[in-house]
Amino acid sequence: MDKSATSPPLLELRDLSKHFRSYWTFSPIQAVSNVSLRIEQGESFGFLGHNGAGKTTTIKSIVGLIRATSGEILFSGKALSSNEQREQIGYLPEQPYFYDHLSVQETLSFFASLYGIPYREQGRAISEALSLVNLRDRERSSVRSLSKGLQQRVALAQAILNKPKLLLLDEPFSGLDPIGRKEVRDLILALRAEGSTIFLSSHILSDVEDICDRVAIMVKGSIRKEFSLDEAASLFGTSFELVIASATPEQLQIADTVEQSSTETTQGTYSTLRFDTYADAESAIDEAKRHSIRIVSFRTVGRSLEDIFVSATEEAEARTE
């Protein structure tokens, strides 16, 4: 049975809009325009867009840091307005701020008070959050002594301190090195496996593909595309990938207009070519055979999230020119 038919979504935005006033002319600047979304309980939802697209404004409207100009925000079918509702939401901002001289434990105790967690329950809540983010051994360390990756863990710990029904993550991988990114991604995946509902805004599309079930692409304040990642191939088509053994530049002219990458292995160097149509791929295969270039593999692949994102943003830009 369709879950949405029996219960309201955990989070629903209905025609949400937000405009600001220019400091110089006082003319309205539209940041978010008529955004409508439904996030179901237990879903992992990716929220994509360039800088300035309106993602953070939308998220801040949800958590109540700014007031939307118009539209509705519903939580479990009811207007999101009470402290009791907001206490069921965890929020990791793009640039979390902590008091440098407080310890990790003191920082989380401060946030526990903001969440309304009773004092007698704070110790247990902090201990559980630190265990989830693997920071139990650093609870007495000052926040300023921690690396960027560990500070991001503290930020994630405060976001899950109240065991939220909805976890809003705004660029959780910002400023992290590859190891820090993997650590935070693994933490989010663990929370997802435990049934948390995740609303993730990120520029790291490969991580969005790993974490999310469904995504929306925002361009200039509006939702341009919304789709399940499982449906991406059927909705946006496929491409064709040809891997060939090492060849001379002249021989590789068969692919001078397609996406191309090179990989070195212990068995030699391989070139991976990506074609939009089967006819182009077939022509390249014929040319490879004519030049006696060894064909390693040929397969059909779904459009990557990056391909879809670039296409959606370019289409939107073209319509506004």
- The CATH class designation of the largest domain is Alpha Beta
CATH H-level superfamily title of the largest domain: P-loop containing nucleotide triphosphate hydrolases
In CATH, the topology of the largest domain is named Rossmann fold
- Architecture (CATH level 2) name of the largest domain: 3-Layer(aba) Sandwich
Largest sheet: 6 strands, mixed
- Average pLDDT figure: 84
What does this structure look like?
The chain is α/β, with parallel strands linked by helices. The protein folds into two domains: 3-233, P-loop containing nucleotide triphosphate hydrolases (Rossmann fold); 238-302, ACT-like. Chain A, domain 2 (Alpha-Beta Plaits), CATH 3.30.70. Helices cover 35% and strands 29% of the residues. Strands 6-7-8-3-9-10 form a six-stranded mixed sheet, sandwiched between helices. Strands 2-1-4-5 form a four-stranded antiparallel sheet, covered by helices on one side. Strands 12-13-11-14 form a four-stranded antiparallel sheet. Helix 6 runs parallel beside helix 7. It is globular and about 75 Å long.
Summarize the structure.
The chain is α/β, with parallel strands linked by helices. Helices cover 35% and strands 29% of the residues. The protein has two domains: 3-233, Rossmann fold, CATH 3.40.50.300; 238-302, 2-Layer Sandwich (Alpha-Beta Plaits).
Blueprint (SSEs and pairs):
Blueprint: H1 3-6, E1 11-21, E2 28-39, E3 44-48, H2 55-63, E4 70-75, E5 78-79, H3 83-86, E6 89-92, H4 104-115, H5 119-132, H6 148-160, E7 166-170, H7 178-193, E8 197-201, H8 205-211, E9 214-219, E10 222-228, H9 232-236, E11 238-245, E12 259-265, E13 268-275, H10 278-290, E14 295-302, H11 305-320
Parallel strand pairs: 3-8, 3-9, 6-7, 7-8
Antiparallel strand pairs: 1-2, 1-4, 4-5, 9-10, 11-13, 11-14, 12-13
